[in-house]
């Protein structure tokens, strides 16, 4: 047989450092706010090709703080989540780590899981461990990408090209927070709470409205037109391509500073006060824009609070709201085919009107 | 039964790199790619028989130590592309064995694709993903693996088959957007070389090859030493802006191409010639607009920038002789004047200008259960589907041992011996097809001066409504507008309603009514779409039907279609419209004519047009948008 065996896995090159990414501030802010408060509900990044969408998302992992999980738990569960065992089946040949008494714990980086296009449903949801079935005739559950992404981020590049049936699966799991697998007489149910991050080029196809609704924030990015910034992009890209390790090392200080800032903001978040008058105005803005349901208000309030925490501010100010409103609301406006006014302008006007009233 | 696709390319009969005649620009681009693989690839426009694949193979032979050459068939399935479980080896060894896909097999070598513009969007997405990350992630068949996949992509396409998807093309560093000119001398040389008896002149060209290989090797060593000045980089960035290049990726490619050019010349600094060739191979093909407007914009504000920045040259004084202190603006101007002549008069000949924002999304070619090209097998109920036999057996195979021990034998074990293969409902795999045969709606919108009177606003509104409808049904849409001298494709067949809407929003009106030109373009668009498998096509014409501009030399190849170029004589115009309309009707293209003319002005031209087209006629001023939608 002449099949080239692929034995050696490639050495893992560091990702391009998050802090070294030039421009695209809205996208970066949206991602960071979701790290600070995962309940914001994810980010959809839409924009021109070649503007660093996927580079930025993949760079996120390196600045995320760590979480505590039960040692070796394939579902990344925290000790307090473990009472409810997902299944009594062995996982990857090991007994499921939920024996009586205090489980051992470990710190792991917040997982950022890539969902590649063309991933099959069994890899996404998990399936029976083929190797064990083959070699020992044993039924063991092999967790999929959704298990890996629990308590972390699930990233889908070219989300608008994702197969419809996978979109259905994702919507299902994202809504319930649980993944249920029934296969070969195996029944497994495990938590799968993750921040959904999608990116794509709007010109290559639209997103299904149900999927669009799932995303808390919608960041828009465009080509950078400042020549000096563009030169800087080229320089950094070349330096990174020439020696990714050295480049990553050179940015480590900034990376660490950002990581610390995120950790502080996460801790401060619970104490951030949301004054009633700000909350009222948030509701007014959403009403003025005719946004259905309450997801708009909730997201906007959470994102503004996360921003306040990020700035070490004890309470949410109107400026915080204004800063995040376009990203929180622009994909929730009703689409009127004859509307020529840009959605950001409409949001801007609604914000001004609310500010004037107060 | 395994066919090796990773061949060593050194067959004695194959032509060598230098022997491939013509395609000189392509050769230069390939040399750059040989020197710096991070340029990602070369996309080459060339008609059938131009020697593309010969050149690609000859190129692979230049790469060091048996670089693989993988040719990607256009009908490749996802598992062949990405890789998957090698069941044979898995069963034999009792452990999972992952078989590499074509992308991983091209690692370190060349991935050659002929028909870049015919590639399935799903396949293109995987290729782009691999190019972006240098690895292939396999998440299928219970396998999770990462395979290295750094390859140099050589993609060829025949522009007459339609455009290459913008997102894919953008990831390919070097683009040669025009097919080479036919030249009798070159043609003769091609034939001569190919007729050469095997073995003759082998030695000379073998020496050439060795020399080229040495040259590439030297240039690769030189590359890290080549320096580029800030103002040179800025000039390239400015040129990109002036040409309306989308995204920031092109800047990086342009700088790398300039460096590779300098390295091949054995220089340690980048010359104007290096910048020029970089602009020609990277930026120019990505232009979306003519430079004039940008230059006008820049006039008012450059005052502070024009003065040479004292900080700039300080970065690298050794490479900045005093006489080379040019400002970025000066260098850009130099570059612009050098490459501007190559900018086609009609920008729509450039790949990114016509389809400024990519071609189809995969929604345009939805997966379905019955028709089209088989792309993958998915678990699912058998009812109403076609079973994918092999994938079903493969799915069942790993469980055989388990099921045998589990004792799930047939109840009547005496009359029915134990089955050879135990297949349960969960193993059943059914075929999913990618249907390229979705419907195509071509909106042909009259934007002539007379339309200003005739409810352009309503026409736009109705069009947008119909577009929304097309979105719901996952149809492809295309937008053609006609005004002035000739019609123009604003949006080639695509799925993006947003784009169509935006194009409509900015659609100016005024000028003559080149209806014949519009019909011609629409007909061409359908023919192209049909060559890609789109069967059903419907023209939606929004017009008052008052043609007053003849088909002219704007369509040089229109002669072959029948209507000969003519002056603007009224009868001629009407005849052209009739001929084209009948031809469209003969080609089984549905048509709806939406008459936008106010009743008191109408002389029934639009109704007559609907007659020639054998299509339906709707009178807009009375109709509500939803009524129009029903008519279609």
Describe the structure.
The complex is a heterodimer of chains A (about 350) and B (about 625). Chain A is of the alpha/beta class and about 350 residues long. Chain A folds into 2 domains: about 20-220, P-loop containing nucleotide triphosphate hydrolases (Rossmann fold), CATH 3.40.50; about 275-355, Helicase, Ruva Protein, domain 3 (Orthogonal Bundle). Helices cover about 40% and strands about 15% of the residues of chain A. Chain A contains 14 helices and 11 strands. A 5-stranded parallel beta sheet of chain A has the order 4-7-10-1-11. A two-stranded antiparallel ribbon of chain A has the order 2-3. Chain A has a two-stranded antiparallel ribbon with strand order 5-6. Residues about 1-10 and about 95-100 of chain A have low confidence and may be disordered. With about 625 residues, chain B is of the alpha/beta class. Chain B has 4 domains: about 15-180, Rossmann fold (3-Layer(aba) Sandwich); about 225-295 and about 325-355, Helicase, Ruva Protein, domain 3, CATH 1.10.8; about 385-435, no CATH class; about 440-630, Rossmann fold, CATH 3.40.50. In chain B, the strands form 5 sheets. A 6-stranded mixed beta sheet of chain B has the order 15-14-13-16-17-18, with helices on both faces. A 5-stranded parallel beta sheet of chain B has the order 2-5-8-1-9. In chain B, strands 10-12-11 form a 3-stranded antiparallel beta sheet. In chain B, helix 10 (about 230-240) packs across helix 16 and helix 21 packs across helix 26.
């Amino acid at each position: 047989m002449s099949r080239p065996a692929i034995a050696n896995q490639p050495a893992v090159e560091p990702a391009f450092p998050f802090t070294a990414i030039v421009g695209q501030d809205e996208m970066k802010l949206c991602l960071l706010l979701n790290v600070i408060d995962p309940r914001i509900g994810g980010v959809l990044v839409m924009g021109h090709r070649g503007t660093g969408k996927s580079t930025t998302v993949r760079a996120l992992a390196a600045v995320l703080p760590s979480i505590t999980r039960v040692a070796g738990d394939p579902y990344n569960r925290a000790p307090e989540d473990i009472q409810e065992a997902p299944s009594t089946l062995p996982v990857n040949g090991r007994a499921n780590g939920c024996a009586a008494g205090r489980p051992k714990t470990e710190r792991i980086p917040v997982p950022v899981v890539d969902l590649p296009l063309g991933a099959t449903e069994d890899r996404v949801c998990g399936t029976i461990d083929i190797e064990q079935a083959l070699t020992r005739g044993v039924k063991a559950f092999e967790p999929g990408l959704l298990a890996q992404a629990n308590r972390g981020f699930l990233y889908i590049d070219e989300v608008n090209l994702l197969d419809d049936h996978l979109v259905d699966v994702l919507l299902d799991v994202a809504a319930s927070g649980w993944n249920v697998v029934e296969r070969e007489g195996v029944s497994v149910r495990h938590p799968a709470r993750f921040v959904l991050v999608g990116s794509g080029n709007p010109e290559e196809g639209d997103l299904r409205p149900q999927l669009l609704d799932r995303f808390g924030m919608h960041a828009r990015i465009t080509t950078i037109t400042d020549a000096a910034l563009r030169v800087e992009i080229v320089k950094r890209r070349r330096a990174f391509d020439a020696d990714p390790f050295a480049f990553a090392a050179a940015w480590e200080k900034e990376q660490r500073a950002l990581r610390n800032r995120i950790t502080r903001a996460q801790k401060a978040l619970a104490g951030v006060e949301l004054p009633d008058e700000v909350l009222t105005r948030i509701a007014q803005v959403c009403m003025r824009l005719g946004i259905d349901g309450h997801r708009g208000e909730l997201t906007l309030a959470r994102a503004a609070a996360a921003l306040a925490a990020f700035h070490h501010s004890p309470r949410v100010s109107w400026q915080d709201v204004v800063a995040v409103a376009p990203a929180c609301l622009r994909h929730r406006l009703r689409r009127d085919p004859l509307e020529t006014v840009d959605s950001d302008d409409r949001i801007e006007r609604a914000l001004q009107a609310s500010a004037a009233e107060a | 039964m395994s066919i090796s696709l990773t061949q060593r390319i050194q067959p004695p009969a194959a032509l060598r790199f230098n022997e491939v005649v013509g395609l000189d620009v392509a050769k230069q681009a390939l040399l750059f790619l040989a020197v710096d693989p991070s340029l990602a690839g070369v996309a080459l426009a060339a008609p059938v028989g131009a020697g593309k694949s010969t050149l690609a193979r000859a190129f692979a032979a230049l790469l060091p130590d048996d670089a693989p050459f993988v040719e990607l068939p256009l009908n490749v399935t996802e598992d062949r592309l990405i890789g998957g479980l090698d069941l044979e080896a898995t069963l034999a060894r009792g452990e999972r064995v992952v078989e590499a896909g074509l992308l991983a097999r091209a690692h370190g070598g060349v991935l050659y694709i002929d028909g870049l513009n015919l590639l399935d969007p799903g396949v293109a997405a995987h290729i782009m993903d691999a190019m972006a990350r240098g690895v292939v992630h396999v998440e299928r068949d219970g396998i999770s693996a990462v395979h290295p996949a750094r390859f140099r992509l050589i993609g060829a396409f025949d522009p007459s088959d339609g455009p290459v998807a913008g997102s894919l093309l953008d990831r390919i560093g070097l683009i040669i957007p025009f097919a080479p000119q036919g030249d009798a001398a070159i043609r003769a040389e091609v034939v001569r070389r190919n007729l050469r008896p095997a073995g003759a002149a082998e030695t000379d060209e073998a020496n050439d090859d060795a020399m080229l290989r040495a040259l590439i090797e030297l240039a690769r060593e030189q590359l890290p030493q080549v320096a580029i000045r800030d103002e040179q980089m800025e000039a390239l960035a400015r040129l990109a802006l002036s040409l309306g290049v989308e995204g920031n990726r092109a800047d990086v490619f342009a700088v790398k191409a300039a460096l590779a050019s300098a390295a091949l010349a054995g220089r340690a600094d980048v010359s104007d010639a290096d910048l020029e060739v970089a602009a020609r191979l990277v930026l120019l093909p990505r232009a979306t607009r003519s430079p004039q407007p940008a230059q006008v914009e820049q006039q008012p504000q450059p005052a502070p920038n024009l003065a040479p920045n004292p900080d700039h040259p300080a970065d690298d004084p050794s490479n900045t002789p005093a006489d080379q202190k040019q400002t970025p603006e000066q260098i850009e101007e130099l570059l612009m004047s050098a490459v501007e002549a190559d900018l086609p008069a009609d920008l729509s000949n450039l790949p990114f200008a016509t389809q400024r924002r990519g071609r189809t999304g995969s929604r345009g070619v939805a997966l379905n259960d019955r028709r089209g090209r088989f792309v993958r097998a998915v678990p699912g109920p058998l009812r109403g589907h076609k079973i994918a036999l092999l994938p079903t057996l493969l799915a069942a195979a790993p469980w055989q041992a388990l099921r045998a021990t589990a004792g799930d034998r047939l109840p009547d074990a005496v009359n029915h011996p134990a089955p050879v293969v135990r297949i349960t409902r969960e193993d059943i795999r059914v075929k999913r097809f990618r249907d390229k045969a979705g419907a195509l709606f071509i909106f042909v919108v009259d934007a002539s001066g007379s339309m200003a009177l005739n409810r352009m606003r309503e026409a736009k509104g109705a069009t947008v409504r119909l577009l929304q409808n097309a979105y719901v049904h996952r149809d492809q849409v295309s937008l053609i507008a006609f005004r002035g001298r000739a019609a123009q494709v604003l949006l080639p067949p695509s799925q993006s309603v947003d784009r169509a809407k935006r194009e409509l929003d900015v659609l100016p009106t005024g000028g003559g009514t080149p209806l014949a030109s519009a019909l011609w373009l629409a007909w061409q668009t359908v023919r192209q779409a049909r060559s890609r498998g789109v069967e059903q096509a419907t023209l939606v014409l929004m017009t008052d039907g008052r043609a007053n501009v003849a088909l002219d030399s704007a369509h040089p190849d229109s002669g072959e279609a029948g209507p000969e170029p003519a002056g603007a004589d009224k009868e001629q115009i009407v005849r052209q419209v009739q001929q084209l309309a009948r031809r469209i009707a003969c080609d089984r293209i549905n048509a709806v004519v939406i008459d936008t003319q106010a009743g008191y002005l109408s002389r029934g031209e639009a109704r007559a047009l609907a007659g020639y087209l054998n299509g339906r006629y709707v009178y807009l001023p009375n109709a509500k948008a939803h009524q129009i939608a029903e008519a279609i």
